[in-house]
Backbone:
């Protein structure tokens, strides 16, 4: 009896000890939230947060029902160009610190001092508790109040009112160059009295106004509207030294002209306009020409005629500039500006940096209105004067002496041939001197020309070397030049082959139509940026005549092209594997395999197991030829009767046939030799028993027979 009582007491002590340990263990140590959420309540029973799956199906930590944040301090409001600047310094009323659930502050503004913040007065938000500044566009004075919000969306009381403050006046020092265009000026706002002496030079007279196209670079909303709903005209990236350009898809079954109107302008008979645009073509381009043109319309809207600037580019031409002047005919009241791809059948063409200017001619300037006081010093140079316009009769005797000639002002291009002969030059007179103009080694035939090309709207100025062959089939000579872009701090060296055309046939022979206006050209361009240097070769065919060519750095892996062989060599000179497209591997011994191609164990069905021992394990592999192979030996461990449809193994999706047909393979139950078949379901990847002979069914039910899968191989498609 005493023994039983002692045993019972020990049992109770053990249970008490275990219960105490259980109470000390966290009940959530190994818990999770399964397809639900954990609600967090405060001591008053109010829901404060939902952790986990939210009512809308998302998963998050959602803070709710938080008390409103304290009222923020007032904003400092100051005038700014075009509006007012509201600055909040991150403080709260009564020096309260920022709440930990701070989300943002809202800046509200209105013209009335006693306004209540609402969605209609919200002008913007500041997301940092450290504060910030928001510029509010306005034409009149405004009052400003600040409202804080927390992560629950609760709003604070608004701050006290700040202001009023209005926009700052605009003075000359605060207006950026070009920010005030002709559209911002009232009619007759600029008179002769408003123009400083020398402000209008000959460059301003040649091109009368600014660009008449509202978006000649095709970067803004106007261009978006131009191509809206069009399938042939699109906006393409990048442009010529710009983010976007205008492009046309010329694909058509027969020669087709595609046109896009850019703008509608007032015009009058005799008005002259300067048109210009950059253009390029794709390598498969086929078309007659590209145009920027103006259609002249009468008072009834009918088209009178066209003024056209046109180019006939070859396929694959890089950005090139076309420009010219057109004049409105009699009866013109309006003009429309168009881009066109003419009689094209394939490829794409692009336009960028288009410009349309009015041209001021001499007949439009009042006699005597431009005197020497209106012309800047050196504004009229030799290039601005038509040849032979100023002769000895127009120059007062003795008025033009050496003191009146700038250095290099008397240039070769301005002198009649033979005026200056070798006997007139002092020995070494040209040594170390600057010669302005073009230098040639000959007047015609094969020669070298050195010239300076001035900057255009798209290309910096450059010095160029032209290698002229003198051939009649040469449209443009081979050239070499360097371009420096000061904005991007890049220098580009470009070598370009000559542009040729088909030779003219003999007079008694007909000429066949050429495939292209000009023959293809080749270019080599070299440049660098802060991270790398580049060499770009553009040609129909690139031929490298070398016994071996290496691509890559010497201290790392290189690809060697030698004759008809391609090898990969590491920095030590040892051959390594070649990776093709990140998918295939060719090892140094010539074996081809797929990247990360390995034998993988499939899912084995119930009642089956690896045979084990020294026998090959069951696995599958996907080969580069898009076939799947099996290997290894399985043993049926189940002694239940084998039946059709029993799953032997299952293959994953990447190892299943893509067809909808069942694959079937013949098999034997070893060692008894009972025959049966295996079906492979392409949808599930299940390999199942079928067509069991009685011998096979008996053998497989013994629990000792096995199945060899090494003869099974099937295609994926």
Residues:
């Amino acid at each position: 009896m005493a023994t039983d009582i002692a045993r019972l007491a020990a049992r109770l002590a053990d249970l008490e000890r275990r219960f105490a340990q259980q109470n000390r263990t966290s009940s959530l140590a190994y818990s999770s939230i399964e397809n639900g959420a954990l609600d967090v309540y405060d001591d008053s029973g109010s829901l404060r947060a939902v952790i986990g799956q939210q009512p809308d199906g998302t998963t998050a930590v959602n803070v709710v029902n938080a008390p409103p944040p304290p009222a923020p301090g007032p904003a400092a409001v100051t005038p700014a160009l075009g509006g007012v600047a509201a600055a909040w310094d991150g403080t709260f009323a009564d020096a309260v610190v920022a709440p930990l659930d701070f989300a943002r502050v809202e800046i509200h503004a209105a013209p009335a001092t006693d306004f209540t913040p609402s969605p209609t007065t919200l002008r913007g938000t500041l997301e940092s508790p450290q504060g910030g500044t928001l510029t509010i566009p306005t034409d009149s004075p405004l009052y400003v109040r600040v409202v804080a919000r927390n992560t629950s969306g609760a709003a604070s009381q608004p701050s006290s009112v700040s202001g009023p403050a209005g926009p700052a006046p605009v003075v000359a020092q605060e207006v950026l160059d070009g920010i005030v265009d002709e559209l911002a000026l009232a009619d007759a706002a600029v008179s002769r009295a408003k123009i400083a002496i020398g402000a209008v030079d000959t460059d301003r007279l040649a091109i009368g106004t600014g660009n008449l196209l509202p978006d000649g670079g095709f970067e803004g909303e106007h261009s978006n509207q131009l191509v809206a709903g069009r399938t042939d005209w699109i906006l393409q990236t990048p442009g010529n030294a710009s983010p976007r350009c205008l492009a046309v898809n010329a694909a058509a079954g027969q020669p087709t002209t595609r046109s896009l109107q850019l703008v509608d302008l007032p015009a009058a008979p005799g008005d002259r306009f300067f048109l210009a645009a950059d253009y390029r073509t794709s390598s498969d381009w086929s078309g007659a020409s590209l145009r920027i043109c103006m259609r002249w319309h009468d008072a009834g809207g009918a088209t009178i005629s066209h003024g056209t600037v046109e180019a006939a580019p070859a396929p694959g031409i890089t950005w090139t500039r076309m420009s010219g002047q057109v004049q409105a005919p009699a009866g013109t009241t309006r003009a429309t500006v168009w881009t066109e791809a003419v009689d094209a059948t394939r490829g794409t063409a692009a336009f960028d940096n288009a410009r349309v200017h009015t041209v001021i001619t001499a007949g439009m300037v009042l006699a005597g209105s431009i005197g020497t006081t209106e012309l800047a010093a050196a504004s009229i140079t030799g290039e601005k004067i038509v040849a032979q316009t100023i002769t000895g009769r127009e120059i007062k005797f003795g008025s033009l002496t050496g003191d009146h000639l700038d250095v290099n002002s008397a240039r070769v291009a301005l002198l009649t041939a033979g005026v200056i002969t070798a006997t007139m030059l002092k020995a070494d007179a040209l040594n170390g001197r600057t010669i302005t103009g073009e230098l040639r080694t000959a007047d015609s035939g094969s020669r070298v020309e050195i010239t300076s090309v001035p900057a255009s709207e798209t290309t910096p100025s450059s010095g160029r070397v032209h290698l002229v062959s003198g051939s009649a089939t040469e449209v443009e000579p081979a050239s070499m030049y360097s371009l420096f872009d000061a904005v991007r701090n890049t220098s580009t060296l470009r070598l370009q082959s000559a542009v040729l055309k088909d030779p003219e046939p003999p007079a008694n022979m007909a000429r066949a139509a050429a495939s292209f206006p000009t023959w293809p050209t080749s270019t080599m361009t070299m440049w660098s940026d802060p991270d790398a240097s580049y060499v770009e070769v553009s040609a129909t065919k690139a031929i490298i005549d070398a016994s071996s060519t290496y691509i890559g750095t010497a201290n790392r892996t290189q690809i060697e092209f030698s004759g008809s062989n391609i090898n990969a060599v590491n920095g030590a000179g040892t051959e390594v594997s070649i990776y093709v497209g990140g998918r295939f591997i060719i090892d140094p011994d010539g074996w081809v395999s797929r990247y990360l191609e390995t034998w993988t164990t499939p899912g084995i069905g119930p009642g089956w197991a690896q045979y084990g021992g020294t026998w090959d394990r069951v696995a599958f592999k996907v080969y580069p030829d898009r076939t799947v192979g099996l290997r290894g030996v399985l043993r049926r461990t189940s002694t239940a009767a084998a039946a059709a449809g029993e799953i032997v193994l299952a293959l994953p999706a990447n190892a299943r046939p893509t067809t909808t047909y069942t694959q079937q393979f013949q098999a034997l139950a070893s060692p008894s030799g009972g025959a049966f078949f295996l079906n492979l379901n392409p949808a599930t990847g299940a390999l199942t028993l079928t067509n069991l002979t009685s011998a096979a069914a008996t053998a497989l039910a013994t629990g000792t027979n096995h199945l060899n899968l090494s003869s099974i191989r099937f295609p994926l498609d």
About this structure: The helical segments are 2-24, 202-206, 221-227, 694-700. The first strand starts at residue 37 and ends at 41. Residues 2-24 form the longest helix (23 residues). Residues 201-208 have pLDDT under 50 and may be disordered.
